[in-house]
Amino acid sequence: MKKKIISVLLATILIFSAMAPAASAVGEAKPIYPVVYVTGYGPNIFAVKGDMTSEIYWPTSEDLGAILKEAIGPCLKELAVALVTDDFSKYCDELYKAIHPIYEDISLAPDGMPKDASGRGENPNHIFLMYDKYTGGDETFPYDWRLSPEYSAAELSTFVDTMIRETGAPKVNIVARCLGGNVLSAYLQNDPNAVNKVETAVFYIPSTEGIGLFGQLFSGKLDITADNLNTYVEELVKYQALVDDPAVQDFLIVLISILEQIKFLSLAESAFEKLIDEIGSNLIPRIIRRSYGSFPSFWSMVPAEDLETAIEYVYNTPELKEEYAGTIEKARHYRDNVQLNARKNIQELSDKIDIKVISKYNIPLMPIIPDCDKNSDGTAETIYTSFGATVSDFGKTLTADYIASMPEANKKYLSADEQIDASTCALPNETWFIKNSYHDHFPASIDKLIDTMLLTDMDIFSNPEYPQFLEDTGAEKLVPVTEKDEVRPDDNSFEGIIALFKRFIASMIEIFKKLFNSVPQNAA
Which pLDDT band holds residue 61 (cuts at 50, 70, 90)? Predict the structure, then answer.
């Protein structure tokens, strides 16, 4: 009886949705199908899979502040000794003792599978009826985000089959975010019947092709420089709104630039160089093996070109390679089967499934790796999340020579700020770019864009409200990108430093003006 009621309700919804035009959207309306939302990493992991009353393993209940406070004494003692002896091994041992218990419960066995009964608490066979939204909890595919995306893709296939059978819907829509994009890519690659089950597939900042930050950290490539720190701090001050007043922002940004010019930050950099090298060679491989490196899912976010180097770095002895052979095999299989075929696969499937891609840009990466100048959303590089766009480095534009060499027909894919050429994407007509939106930011404005993708036939040309390049300004709607940004000059000359001081003084004057003008006229 329950199945019959669900089928009748769904049939009614489909009939009326097919008859009704899409609200405030340009393009032919599509039927409303059940939506499966595949999250990124992070939802709760419980001590007992399928039991939401059991202990929560993740997020960790450990008090990180208390752990670090307890560890600071022994760590400082060993650091003082290390600075004298140049032997940082005991210091790294103390840090490891403090950090590794945090991940003890959540870590997986060396074969990349749970070492206990832990997993997601939700029942994966539960069927939800939410046809117009996907960001709530009811329609979320409850997978164990620690496991290989290919393992989770098999579960997703079963989940989709169950939804179709129980609801009577002919197909589903799938929205996949970050790591969820890896699962969705594996599902589309490995299930030949997916084309008959999926109407629209939206890749939202997918990590299918990897995240360079993970690739370089898993390869031990730490690189902290004054210039990178300078750029990152400028970004935090300006776009993260640590300081709201533009005059104060300018004052701090120029002060940071001046300090960099006179090599203040470079002095700090040299003081930590040996420490960073030791942490990279001694501490990080151990921590990776006992935490995120025990998750095949995180290995799937290592770019293909970094994988073998990362395996050698993390599993740096024959014994470790043998012990973790199961995890290594899963990582390589994902790379060879899914990651390296992702662009070709979505191109081939795009005639049968309505595939959309949403990428982000114009935010720097954390200044701890050599490639932190790549354009990104603060976590994932735009070239990867867009499946192949040609992108300038952060704070730069594509060169004049590159733009001049573009075929005239491709210039319609060039962003107005000249940072992105989308013509090289796997799906240039179905790929959107959101400027100034951080990786973990999912505002209502992007929610509306995805709703429109699910409810109407659209591409980057068909809806004036949603052209290819959009900016997240914090407003209710995304706005089109229409002009170039001011590019910070690389001027280390004496005249350049003088210009910085002039700007510094001017910003101070503006601050004092504001302070003076803020005093009430009747103040004593």
Answer: low
Query: Residue 202 to residues 129, 185, 314, 478: CA-CA distances in angstroms?
Result: 19, 11, 33, 18
Residue 349: pLDDT over 90: yes
The structure tokens listed for 162 are: 């169950």
Of the pLDDT bands very low, low, confident and very high (cuts 50, 70, 90), residue 137 is very low
- 376 close to 364: Cβ distance less than 8 angstroms: yes
Residues in the chain: 524
Spatial distance between the Cα atoms of 181 and 152, rounded to a whole number of angstroms? 11
Mean per-residue pLDDT of the chain? 79
Largest CA distance in the chain: 82
Question: Are β-strands 469-471 and 479-480 bridged in parallel, bridged antiparallel, or unpaired?
Answer: antiparallel
Contact partners, residue 57, CB within 8 Å, separation at least 6: 45, 46, 47, 105, 106, 118
Name the nearest CA neighbour of 245 among 516, 521, 515, 523. 515
Q: Is 421 left (phi over 0), alpha (psi -120 to 50) or beta?
A: beta
| Distance of alpha carbon 240 from alpha carbon 236, whole angstroms | 5
With H, G, I as helix, E, B as strand and everything else as coil, classify residue 176: strand
Q: Is the pTM of this model over 0.90?
A: no
Q: Is the pLDDT of residue 466 over 90?
A: yes
Residue of 148, 160, 129, 189 whose CA lies nearest to 6: 129
Task: Report the distance separating Cα 193 and Cα 419, nearest Å.
Answer: 38
